[in-house]
Specification:
Elements: H1 4-18, E1 20-21, E2 37-47, E3 58-64, E4 67-76, E5 82-90, E6 97-104, E7 109-111, E8 116-118, E9 124-125, E10 132-137, E11 139-140, H2 152-162, H3 185-195, E12 206-207
Parallel strand pairs: 2-9, 2-10
Antiparallel strand pairs: 1-4, 2-5, 3-4, 3-6, 4-5, 6-7, 6-8, 11-12
Length: about 220
């Protein structure tokens, strides 16, 4: 019987074989021959409440200070789960602080998640089954009542808002689901359409509310 370490290695290789390279035009190229050491990180972009975002809408890079040390590769598991792997480079044996930059393709917006890791050569941070979470959005579009998901209660919350019924849990930034710049009955209809499978747009959109201040 194969041990757990061998099984994990095989899973990683299978995921890598199935991976699709992200278009990394936003990030500078990294020449692996310029560095002595490397490590691997498996990450997944999520909201603050743990909702997994559409990984294909993002480019991820690892930085040390202002130097790009690795760019992301989109992986898709057999069950459809998406995550991003990064090979991170360094010329220091250990101890450098690595932070991540995230670029959203659909909005052209760049963010700086607060998560940072310490460089340790030949190590792996996160796993394909339990990737490191990078929080890049604190509001999930459509989660109007703030319960962490999109359901019929969110459509009801919008209707209540429009008729003047106050709600302490109303998340205004999540309510403009049709992205027309205002909250109206069309937003409730968009949620209903999403719930009955007429649109998948809500699963691919989130307001980006992470830090936009670049680390020093």
């Amino acid at each position: 019987m194969m041990n757990a370490k061998r099984i994990l290695i095989m899973v990683c290789l299978l995921l890598s074989a199935a991976g699709t390279l992200l278009a990394q035009g936003h990030w500078p190229a990294v020449n692996p021959h310029d560095y002595q050491y490397d490590m691997t990180a498996y990450v997944q972009l999520t909201t603050a409440s743990g909702n997994v975002l559409d990984q294909s809408d993002y480019e991820v890079a690892a930085f040390c200070s202002r130097e790009c040390r690795g760019t992301g590769k989109l992986l898709t598991a057999a069950d459809g789960t998406q995550l991003i792997s990064l090979r991170i480079r360094s010329n220091e044996a250990s101890g450098e602080t690595i932070y991540f930059r995230v670029y959203q393709l659909s909005t052209g917006k760049e963010l700086y998640p607060s998560t940072a890791i310490s460089f340790e050569p030949q190590t792996v941070v996160g796993t394909p089954s339990e990737p490191l979470s990078l929080i890049v959005a604190s509001v999930l579009l459509g989660d109007v009542n703030g319960n962490g998901g999109v359901d019929i209660g969110d459509a009801v919350s919008i209707v209540n808002y429009l008729v003047g019924k106050e709600s302490t849990n109303f998340v205004e930034k999540a309510a403009d689901t049709n992205k027309n710049g205002q909250i109206d009955i069309g937003d409730a209809v968009t949620i209903v359409n999403f719930l009955v499978g007429k649109t998948e747009s809500l699963s691919r959109q989130a307001y980006m509310e992470g830090s936009e201040e670049e680390p020093q």
